[in-house]
Amino acid sequence: MTPIIEFKNYTFKYRSQAEPTLLDINLAIYPGEKVLIVGPSGSGKSTLAHCVNGMVPFSYPGESTGTLTVNGKDPAKTGIFGMSKSVGTVLQDTDGQFIGLTVAEDVAFALENDCVEQKEMFRRVDEVAETVDIKKLLDHAPTELSGGQKQRVSMAGVLVDDVDILLFDEPLANLDPATGKRAIDLIDKIHREEKKTVLIIEHRLEDVLYRDVDRIIVIGEGRVVADQKPDDLLVSDVLIKEGIREPLYVTALKHAGCQIKASDLPQHIETMRLEEHKQKVQEWYSHVTLPEPKHEKEAALEILDLDFSYISGNPVLSNIRFRVNKGEMISIVGKNGAGKSTLSSLICGFIDPDRGKILLNGSDIADRSIKERGEVIGLVMQNPNQMISKPMIFDEVALGLSVRGVPEEEIKERVNETLKICGLYPFRNWPVSALSFGQKKRVTIASILVMNPSVIILDEPTAGQDYRHYTEIMEFLKDINEKFGITIIMITHDMHLMLEYTDRAIVIADGQLIADDTPANVLTNEEIADRAYLKKTSLYDLAVKCGITDASGFADRFIYFERQVRENGRVQTSDV
Amino acid sequence: MNQKFGIKQVVAIGIGTALFIVLTNAQVPFLIVPNTALQSRVAVLTFFSAIYGPVVGAAIGLIGHALGDALFYGSIWWSWVFPEAVFAIAVGLFSAKYKVKAGGFGGKEIVLFNVVQIIGNAVAWILCAPILDILIYAEPAGKVFGQGALAFVGNIVVAGVLGTLLLVAYSKVGAKSGSLTKEN
Amino acid sequence: MAGSRLLTYKEKDTWIHRLSGVTKMLFFLLWSITGMLTYDTRVLLVMLVFSFVIFWMSKTEWKQVGTVFKFILFFLCLNLLAVYAFAPHQGTEIYGTMTVLAFSGRYSLTAEQLFYEFNIMLKYLTVTPVVLMFIVTTNPSEFAASLSRLGISYNVGYAIAIALRYVPDVQADFTKIKHAQEARGIEMSSKTSLWDRLKKMSMIIFPLLFSSMDRIDVVSNAMELRGFGKHKKRTWYMGKKLALNDYLTIAFVVVFMVAALTITFSHGSRFYNPFV
User: Fold this and answer.
1) Which of A79, A304, C106, C262 has fewest C-beta within 10 Å?
2) First-to-last C-alpha distance (Å) of chain C
């Protein structure tokens, strides 16, 4: 069989860069295959995808050597329009890809550009809407849809063109865990029923492996580092070396000292053979001891019976009650649109509750203005580009102080000190635009930290970050939490984050608080996970399959063990 | 002017217009006279005209002003819609000379940009708008020239301050990071 | 929320809703041009009655347009006062006579001035209901689609579609950014100096504009990947063929315009003068 995509000794260098981004790539993908491409940020995995759909070299110019053939054509000669007949690309940013004013128009977009007759469009849009299950949404505007629904629309929009190859660029980046699971399911269904060749670019390996893939290609520093079947790859140490997170159950088995073999079928925990390893896992479980639970401290923030609605009779939040202790690091989780952001808006004073109180260090803050609250409660937005309003790093961090009329000398001192804490001091005179996404995130955290808040709320602090950047950001947050006793509240749907870095999780579903418990308990409770669109952690399955009844205790021990491994300097990320 | 009219330009018009419309609501009134306020949307129009040239600028001015007026105020003052495009075209005609994208928006370019924006604003608001007001609505000359002068002052302040700042900042995005060194 | 004041399309089933967007736009354009050109009080009065009849037929509810309508009235009053303040004798200049009703000196109130300002008011009021009706009865998708029928390049039609598509997103970004900056201490209060307010405004516009520049890149990539601009023409999913009612409406407005302008200019001036 001839490959549908074939790279031969392919090297590519962007015009704006000195070094090639892809180096001597040799890769063959066959019709009907489903391939996962993983690699850390900057490894070249996105560039690889751009070569396939023609964005390289047409939108991102540069020079290449070697050959690339996609569906018998050379993308560099065929152009983006030509390639769009063979390759359908689903982008990471579902809002950016949703161009039409309504679902139906967006799905029909490619057909419109091809001058297809209206009648024929109606037929094909209906047909493909059926496939991805959005038939009821056809006349909806994008603002009425959830992230998962928008992604389905994006899929429909490329399927309508009857392409042979489907390319997914980080399809899970903006979805909550349960929705991500459904997306992987749908991709799998399309792959099987429509007989497409599927390429998925993603660093959330465990989530993609929810359904079978034929091969995993690991890209590291512009080269193909591994091209293996999942079972083979998971037993090797390639992933750890390249800074990609292994599935949690694999890490747990390794911690327990198990030697996993490909014949154990580690691709899915549900079907993995664990007979040989059971014993060791149980032994490990009984050996690891947990530290004494931290005792209750003073409350930093208390939320008392909060109700809120934009339109009366249509509550967004009702009866929310919880407390956050001083120096705690907690997560607020729940599906997209459950009311998590509304909650942080209430705490910051952007909107006022219909009922209930918010106490900060014991006193009601109802009368305090947004600005006054901002001095004690810092808010860090998900996208640093939406916060940064000064071209230079120093000025950006100084902003909060200078608008409050702090004397120049003091500003200088406090900003420099904060920049040192955040590891940004060497860059203080740089323009913000020269920084990476992760560094920009640090700048936004620094600009909050400089005001000495007692509570910091972060909205999705690690969204879209690879494992190395994720660890970097989270370790930094843990550091300021421990060193300065700052209370940290994170709004997230990253379950690794909540498991690994937070002591407690507040779970919100449909405007109600449905759990206030340790992350291990939340993520091993099927009912709560279902209602809040979370996903049960694979540690739960591992524990159950190994005959450990206290699955949550098992998860707790795993996390504790992991933290110790990390603190002892054996951080399992590559040092780049 | 030598830019071809491609997808980028279409999208720039679309997003620029959306920004223009949204910012219609974000103005700092400085006198209670109709149609005069420090309009932040002028900064957006200036910025897009300087970067994408006269066609994109004029389109954002026309569509943005007409749609913004219609959506927020339910009426369209055509005599104030067209001058918006006149201003955008003036600024946009010299877009290549500002070298914003190449990272060269410095002293000389800032002066040129401001001279152009002041002339553009003068033609648009002191000349076009009042004349159209007189022709279309037969409004008294004293009143419309007064309004025009106020709009002129407001707009040169916004374009001069916000526009310049935005362009300087955006120009830095294009600057090479290779020239930067870490300091201890 | 700041966006709540925005007028929006509302689906209903009246013959006006069923008209093509192009028809309504042509009607609205020709109607406002007529309204702009004429100062003939008789023509304006007829137009006013027509506007309100059409508005009533479109079954538009008060709550859809009430806020905006009140704003327009307020603005109209302000404008009428401004005209009086700047040129209290514009009416006399136009109509050639001077009938003082009250006061004396520079600000003496004349019947001519009142009549002239009454005409200005009519001009606004004849156009406003049509604009309001156009917005609340025209499906934006269908509108963008039908622009190409007027021979306008689909690039323009699509730019408008993108603008309408992203207004809510940009509005949401704006609110988010504004809030986050307020929490950092940037308040848009009216107490501070102009310079200070400008600086604070820049702190909201900077992030909004620069994140929008990223969005332009993403959206244009997405459109290119799905073949936008491949051919000289494109079809529209929401396109609508013109029906009999459309042709009748267009014919009506053209005939009306010709008639109105003929009457207006028949005696050499665009003003109807009851004073001589």
Assistant:
1) C106
2) 53
The DSSP annotation for chain B comes to ------HHHHHHHHHHHHHHHHHTT-EE--SSSTT-SEEHHHHHHHHHHHHH-HHHHHHHHHHHHHHHIIIIIS---HHHHHHHHHHHHHHHHTHHHH-TTTT---HHHHHHHHHHHHHHHIIIIIIIHHHHHHHHH---HHHHHHHHHHHHHHHHHHIIIIIHHHHHHHHHHTS-GGG-----
Residue B131 is part of which domain span? 7-94+102-173
In single-letter form, the type of residue at position C42 comes to R
Q: Residue A512's beta-bridge partner residues? A: A509
β-pairing verdict for A197-201 and A34-38? parallel
Minimal C-alpha gap between C31 and chain B (Å): 12
Any domain includes B178: no
**Is B62 domain-assigned?**
yes
In the chain, the amino acid numbered A226 is A
Whether the CB-CB separation of C218 and A93 falls below 8 Å is answered with yes
In a domain, B179, yes or no: no
Residue B48 has pLDDT above 70, yes or no: yes
CA of B74 to nearest chain C CA: how many angstroms apart? Answer: 5
Domains in chain C: boundaries: 11-138, 139-244
Give dist(CA A16, CA A394) in Å, integer.
27
What 3-state class would DSSP assign to A543?
helix
CB contact under 8 A, B175 and A426: no
Condensed to tens digits (0 to 9), the pLDDT of residues A425-457 reads: 988 888 887 787 778 888 999 999 999 999 999
CATH assignment of the domain containing B59: 1.10.1760.20
Confidence of residue A575 (pLDDT cuts 50, 70, 90): very low
Judged by a CB distance cut-off of 8 A, whether residue C36 touches chain B is yes
Least confident window among A295-299, A554-558, B141-145, C202-206: A295-299
SS3 state of residue A38: strand
Write phi, then psi, for C230 (nearest 5 degrees).
-70, -45
Ranking A336-340, A349-353, C155-159 by mean pLDDT, the lowest is A336-340
CATH superfamily of A5-242: P-loop containing nucleotide triphosphate hydrolases (3.40.50.300)
| CATH 3.40.1190.20 matches A299-539 | no
Select from A168, A177, A179, A172 the least CA-distant residue to A145: A179
Assess A210–B contact: CB distance below 8 Å, yes or no. no
Q: Which residues of C touch A157 (CB under 8 A)?
A: 226
Number of domains in chain B: 1
Q: What is the ipTM for the molecules in this complex?
A: 0.88
For residue C130, the distance in angstroms to the closest alpha carbon of chain A comes to 24
Residues lower than pLDDT 70 in chain C? 1-6, 188-192
- pLDDT given for residue B180 in this prediction: 63
Domain positions in chain A: 5-242, 245-287+540-576, 299-539
DSSP one-letter code for A291: P
Do A454 and A376 form a contact (C-beta atoms < 8 A)? Answer: yes
C-alpha dihedral, A141 to A142 to A148 to A151, nearest 10° = 110
Query: Between chains, do A370 and C218 touch, taking CB under 8 Å as contact?
Result: no
Residues 6+ away with beta carbon under 8 Å from A480 = A421, A449, A486, A488
Task: Note whether residue B64 is domain-resident.
Answer: yes
The pLDDT tens digits for B134-145 are 988 888 898 899
Helix (H) or strand (E) holding A379: strand A377-380
